[in-house]
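dude i think i finally got it to work??
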Amino acid sequence: MRKKVCMFVWNHFTNDARVLRECTTLSEKGYKVDLICIHDPNDKNMNYKEKRNENFNVYRVRRYPLILSAFQFCMKNKLAGGVAFLLWLIIALYFPIITLPLTFIGVLILKTKLKTAFLRGSIIMRMILRGRLKNYDIYHSNDLNTLPQGYICAKWRLIKKPLIYDSHEVQTSRTGYDSSIYSKMEKFFIRRMDSMIVENHTRAKYNEVLYGFYPNVIHNYPFTQKENKSEKVNLHEILQLPEEEKILLYQGGIQAGRGLDKLIKAVPKFKEGTLVLIGDGRIKPDLEKMVYDMNLQSKVKFLPKVPLSELPKYTRNAYIGFQVLNNTNYNHYSASSNKLFEYMMAGVPVVACDFPEIKRVVEGEETGICIDSHKPDEIAAAVNKLLDNNALRKRLSENSIKASRLFNWENEKESFINVYAKVS
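look at this
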């Protein structure tokens, strides 16, 4: 009998490479996988249900409650708004004791900070309801923000089910998670799950000090690229750059703490090349303004994020790739980012931060140059070294291709399946 898996993730599941790899691997091994994620009402092409293969389905829950969606529709549509207001008046006239307090509570929630808690709570409830619709054998929570859903579905029942906690980040020390409530939440739930996964051994050791046990280590390596490895999207044409112009590439989230401000400050010191940033994120407008203020529009270009399946075609254009995280928290310091291995797959040497997991790969396999990512001068010096020395760049590129035969999901996925074998 095939085991049924219910997996949770707190995103739209459009660019989550790690979750895609895990779900695909489970489905190929005969597990029946349902992934529960969140629908994006702004994306008209996004479906509430997707069938990825015979054993892998995606279910997206509504981001907003139906009553809120109806309210928003009425606010935009005058006719619908007028009809709704008339109905409210009639109901309030006949049932004032119920209607007026509920209306007051609704306005209070929508007009105060309670709105965020209400919306998050309603998403969690819809995830839980979806997670209890079927008789699943195993529950899998990706990151702390879906651990309560997994715990309630797996453990609030007469016959408890196994719960796997897959922590992609260091939840107790990461950007945007400054409140002590997150560490308290993790400490509570971590004692009640059956197995835990982290990204690398640096994080596993951190977990051991924090909680007294060493979790499973499943590295965040990409799929081996099986398509035509010479196929490219012509970035030079898209950006209207001369064919001989060297593209210096950053791909990934445009977020705080990723060293992108330092990278832009280094650009005036580059001997040649154009910095291209592919991705979206909260600080992108700030970086675009920074580029404008520094008068670097001709040397720094921005492109929106692209689908995971298409990304390698963009990466192959690069002369150099960047992974310049800043040490703003332990989550960054301990990272072994997926983009590092994406550059490697494309044979692109990197200029990278000198944090332990990244340095271990970059210097150990000789695939790039490690620098102090907080110093624009060091970033520029490494870039210029690779611009001046094409033979060095070629050697690092060849080493990257060789290393990609080691650092890939095809070699790593058996360790992931073994985690499931232990809890099944």
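The mean pLDDT is 90.
im so relieved honestly
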